[in-house]
Amino acid sequence: MCEINPDKYPSSEEATEGKQTAATPAEWYGVSYPAAASQACEGVRAPRRRAGALVALIVACVLLLSALAGLGGYLVATHLLSLEDTEESAPPPAGGGITPEGSPEGSIPESAAPVGDAASYDYASAVIQKNDGSTLVGSANGSAGTAAKSLIEAIAAVRDSVVEISTETISGRGQLTAGAGSGVIIHADGIIVTNNHVIDGVSNIYVRLTNGNTYEAYLRGTDEENDIAILKITPLEALTVARLGCSSALALGEEVFAIGNPLGQLGGTVTNGIISALEREVEMEENLTMTLIQTNAAINAGNSGGALFNMAGELIGVVNAKFSATGVEGLGFAIPIDTAVLSVNDLLDYGYIPGLPTLGVTLVDRTVNYFYTLPYVYEAPAGAPLQEGDLVVAVDGTQVSTTSALKRLLRSKYEVGDTVTLTIYRKNAQNQYNATDTVTVTLVEEVPSAAGVRFE
């Protein structure tokens, strides 16, 4: 859950199962679409079967195993003996980190999340449709228009489109950290939108549907600046898909409700309220400013990536932040769907956000003299103006202290192809940093290593 920048707002404090039956879809919203039920899916936990069939299957298996016990035991023993001298050690877990010698604190993830092989999934047919809402702007009913339903009807139609997300992060030292959030199904092929900060840097991602089935999810792409990420699952059942509304038609006081996974343990929780403010400029962590919808619907840690719906059952926001301070209540925020869908379409088309300028090197934050940080060049192409080990101090005279700040500066003031002058520290022959130096760099398009992976 993103927190509001405490330097701009009052100091904040961090807020610390049963099987559900799918609701009958109501007209056009919350429509359930069929999925390929016969397709196998690695990492899926199979749905429960009827007790009678299970007993019969167990009996059959026992009889078969009894008949083949001797032969099976012989084959297994022979196989184990053949592996005794040839089996190799297991590879490091996906997403594990590498800590360079004399490096910045923390680790450099080898991959942000599982991306599958080159032919795992296909997004060619994934067209995300959205209500343009042109006739609803300024209407008395806000974005819901005349399609507004009762709260109970709207919740019943769309609740199965919101999923629970759990994550695992494996550090370079093999330590496992768990995380949780929420997501919304936006396409029948198993495409899910969530927040970038929910899955940023994690090793494994799992999605749990309201029927209890859990699937491994693959990361299609992320938009760090707008806090959007796209995941893909391959389900065995039909999915309930959220219909995208029109956030530009929202009205102050319009009734809305949120569905998410607060505390990472209470999936499917529904809270309701109103639209408290439109186009609220909110300063997030690290001085990142976002234009968000403000609502008084209760938002808690774990709701990140979840849904904010109008009374027509349309997704009008992706929940991403809250304000939690002593004595403060009812300050929740969501990314307007009109903004989020732009990132979604780019990520589905390209796997990344095109046109973003970068220095063309891998940067991480490094602590300098125990007191402050600077962007550190962890990896650079041969012959590049920047070299491994360089510390970036300023861009065209504007000082930067973190990699995130450097990225935002480049994206806000420059374009691909522009030339910038960097002030840097570079190690001398004695492997020590001394005086500052300058280098000139031509900005290139930022293309993540996993981008362009197309899925079947």
Structure write-up:
This protein is α+β, with helices and mostly antiparallel strands. The protein has two domains: 24-35 and 101-350, Thrombin, subunit H, CATH 2.40.10; 357-445, Pdz3 Domain (Roll), CATH 2.30.42.10. It is 15% helix and 32% strand. The protein has helices spanning 51-83, 151-158, 196-199, 337-350, 403-413; strands spanning 2-3, 32-33, 97-98, 108-109, 162-170, 176-187, 191-194, 204-208, 214-223, 228-232, 239-240, 243-244, 255-260, 269-283, 289-295, 307-310, 314-322, 332-336, 357-358, 362-368, 372-379, 391-395, 398-399, 419-427, 433-442, 444-445. The strands form seven sheets. It has a six-stranded antiparallel barrel with strand order 13-14-15-18-17-16. The protein is elongated, with a radius of gyration of 25 Å. The model is unreliable at 5-122 and 452-456 (pLDDT under 50).
Which descriptors would you attach to this protein?
single chain; alpha+beta; Thrombin, subunit H; Pdz3 Domain; 2 domains; six-stranded antiparallel barrel; 5 helices; 26 strands
Ordered list of secondary-structure elements with their pairings:
Blueprint lengths: L1 E2 L28 E2 L17 H33 L13 E2 L9 E2 L41 H8 L3 E9 L5 E12 L3 E4 L1 H4 L4 E5 L5 E10 L4 E5 L6 E2 L2 E2 L10 E6 L8 E15 L5 E7 L11 E4 L3 E9 L9 E5 H14 L6 E2 L3 E7 L3 E8 L11 E5 L2 E2 L3 H11 L5 E9 L5 E10 L1 E2 L11
Parallel strand pairs: 1-17, 12-17
Antiparallel strand pairs: 2-11, 3-4, 5-6, 5-8, 6-7, 7-10, 8-9, 9-10, 13-14, 13-16, 14-15, 15-18, 16-17, 17-18, 19-26, 20-21, 22-23, 22-24, 24-25
